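Model it.
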Amino acid sequence: MKKFLSIITVCICTVMVQAQKPNNEAIRKLQMAEFAIANLYVDKVDEDKLVEEAIIKMLAQLDPHSTYNNAEEVKKMNEPLQGNFEGIGVQFQMIEDTLLVIQPVSNGPSEKVGILAGDRIVAVNDTAIAGVKMSTEDIMSRLRGPKDSEVKLTIVRRGVDDSLYFTVKRDKIPILSLDAAYMIQPKTGYIRINRFGATTAEEFTTALKGLQKKGMKDLILDLQGNGGGYLNAAIDLANEFLQQKELIVYTEGRAARRSDFFAKGTGNFKNGRLIVLVDEYSASASEILTGAIQDWDRGVVVGRRTFGKGLVQRPIDLPDGSMIRLTIARYYTPSGRCIQKPYDNTANLDGRVKGDDNQEKYNLELVERFNHGEMIHADSIHFADSLKVQTKRLGRTVYGGGGIMPDYFVPIDTTQYTDYHRNLVAKGVVIKSTTGYIEKHRKELKDKYKKFETFNDKFEINDNFLADIRAMADKEKIEFNESQYNQSLPLIKAQLKALIARDLWDMNEYYQVMNSMNNSVQQALKLLQSDAYEQTLKAKP
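Modeled.
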């Protein structure tokens, strides 16, 4: 009951802050219902669970992004955005019930005590974790812990007969939001961001300056698959490209007055050619940054229409560590486009709620895009004249209606993705076979390929490796389909090579391999090599 009253108090205070009068009658009604159930119901009830369910049901009637998270969910949700967690510092993969170290984090606690890539962790604090079918989550909970606390690890190392024992002092482990930053061509840099977190701006600035020292004049910024994150991170990144006092984004809601966010003009890349890559999974903060760049004619957007997540959530912390994320406003691009795609979770006049049906429709909207041909054919995309707006500097026509429509459309690649390939990935055949190959040949590969450039030019996936893939697929009961196998073979080879590169070096090298197969990246390079970039950013006659 105390938790319920606290929640009601928080909600009342939040509403009052927005200068709205609380509906005392509705609040009393809710209070009385909970009180009656807790004190008069025939059987004992779990009050906490009842309250949580009530909150969840209320939020479900509002919009697709107003949510409730319990305390444990809040902690897990915040870790990637805060930029660090406390643990031993290894990238790992579960292979046949054993934790295999892919790479120790550079200068992290595990690397400092001598743990190497390829080591297998078989016990944590004398508790076996290998061969006991322990969940990945349970293993991670044993490896993580407060900073400066110690954990004892038992290691099995290839070529060493006896087990090895290490005591690792846990530390803060960075969660990087930049996947890759490298020179994709002599004067062109490539940076890929996977989320917008607390350290994104700092990571980006460091990477940008490093590429500029290598002679970078043009930049490809890859936001494909980036689902968003912190608003401030998107604003900080937009500031790197825009001039002083140029509007980045504004928010506005029923009870939330308009708030404008402007560039400071202190950025490090305000003049070079810029291409932003997006797809249907680029959302929220990604769309804020992309919309600002497009509206100010600062760069060219390449890919497919973004997700369309433009609702502002205010986190409301509850006493037990749980949280309500309540939508209070919408995001708008500088030209006034609402980023949020349409939704309808309102109740009918007769009181019947249709929120659940609309939530399902909202969740399936990307599937509908594919079914309607929008992701494959540019001529399948139609916008009403009412959705046309003009960019701020050149007066180019861009479109609202939800999400950011790119300047250059790149269809989704369906040529190499088959059911056979999807099963190979889903059942872990690709990653497991790569890990096994690396474990057997790590020293040989390290000796033969001192530099990634040599590896990238000369290493090829041979027939023996592919035979092992086929054998493992058979073991996983994946029915062989020769035509699908041949169709997906170039993609399978690229993924295998990229994963080997990642294990021998890092994510930079992984993306250097995979980007040779990425149609949006290749389209961006073509635009920079021709006059198409300049023609796109040409002032309206």
